[in-house]
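seq:
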Amino acid sequence: MSQKVKVEKKRVHPRRNGEARGGVASAGAAVESRGARAKPSERIDEHIASIADWRGKVLATIRRIMLEADPAVTEDWKWMGSPVWYCDGMIAVANAHREKVKCTFSRGAHLGVDQLFNAGLGGREWRAIDVFEKDRLDEAALRRLVKTAIAYNRSQQKSKEKGKAVGADGGKVRRAGKKA
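struct:
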């Protein structure tokens, strides 16, 4: 008696296997294949090394500035292959696209420093810097922006801590007949 074995075919999402739209391998394909065991810093090293053109150099410069800005800055690897930097909250995420490198600050709209941002200007939270091949990255301005973002994150942490210290109801005055 022969047994029938049921074979399930798994549908594979092309971009999860290192391919970009149109079936072309992305710059992060080598990094994606290593698996989740590698440390984020190692994955970012490999990702930058896999981008042999000007975008890899720009991404490496952004990373260096992020890590030099404050000793408490940490990096992570998220969203299907994006380096992300944190210090008391998320600072920024950077991606190498086909024609640009995008560095997106998660709270950029709150930083009050719009002269460096050139993308995402209409958003309520995010602001981005798009660096194209012929552009020169203003490292000093980016360093100031990263430090401003860290200071903003820390101020938000302090205000959250103050709110917790006030009391369980947040110190709000309740009016008669209304629920808080």
